[in-house]
Amino acid sequence: MDIFLQQIVNGVTLGSIYALVALGYTMVYGIIGLINFAHGEVVMIGALTAFSVITGLLGADTGLPVGLVVAIGLVAAIAVCSVLAFSIEKVAYRPLRRASRLAPLITAIGMSIVLQNVAMMIWGRNYLRFPELFGTERYVVGGASITSLQIAIVLLAAGVMALLLVMVHKTRLGTAMRATAQNPEVAGLMGININTAISVAFVVGAALAAVAGLMVMTYYEVAYYHMGFILGLKAFTAAVLGGIGNLAGAMLGGLLLGVIEALGAGYIGDLTFGVLGSHYQDVFAFFVLITVLIFRPSGLLGERVGDRA
After folding, report:
1. Is the distance from CB of 299 to CB of 249 less than 8 angstroms?
2. Domains of the chain with bracketed CATH
3. Among 142, 189, 259, 279, which one has the highest count of C-beta atoms within 10 angstroms of its own C-beta?
4. Residue-wise pLDDT tens digits, 93-108
5. What is the dihedral sign for C-alpha 224, 230, 231, 233?
6. Quick one: pLDDT band at residue 86, thresholds 50, 70, 90?
7. pTM, whole model, 2 decimals?
């Protein structure tokens, strides 16, 4: 039972990160029907930007509190990712908005490769070690060990997701985004700037990606130029699992995928592969994707058009 509870804790922590990234996929898909496979690389850019800012401030010995240094790094990452996502949408996706679905998809894959190589040229090929900035306090609850960092990740992710839901459902901007997702032509006739609504969806998704990038880097204490590839695919799996195009589905899918991965690596992986079980955790994520696509392609919550953003 202790092992089970520990894996649940680990799964919820990882699932919170997946949920943040999956929201970026589901927002863009919900509003323009595009699977933005470059979104994982936006997460990577956010992590590496935060790494550069945080380590630069720490190396300069500014005397700033650690919490403030991390906050500055997060703000810088959000700014860079937002500008990057806005530029990608305007330059790479907007001209292809009325093209066949295959053209934007290929463009998204191309943007992913471009961003990886740009990051490699800027930050290099090597793994970058992120310093341990937070304490290692551990709390034992029901036999499971929970660190202060895990608590911070889950609470921050929950707060960010709550703010997103408020923005989408309680503000005029969110109403414009949902109207654009439901029917762009009619929304345009009602005075809504379609391009602005779509750009906002990309920018908000990029901001969530920056937060997730900082979380991943802090959790694993490492960052590298291709870290967004597998993470992006897993987040896409989470979005499909919950019902791509549905905000609540992305959150649910992220949490479920994280728990499934943790339990699979902790139980099935160890039984099947011995000490190498944890290295096969990616298998469980893509097994879930294949299963969902075969038996329930619409996801657990389906696709509710009125809730798309």
Report:
1. yes
2. 2-295 (1.10.3470)
3. 259
4. 999 888 888 898 899 9
5. positive
6. very high
7. 0.90
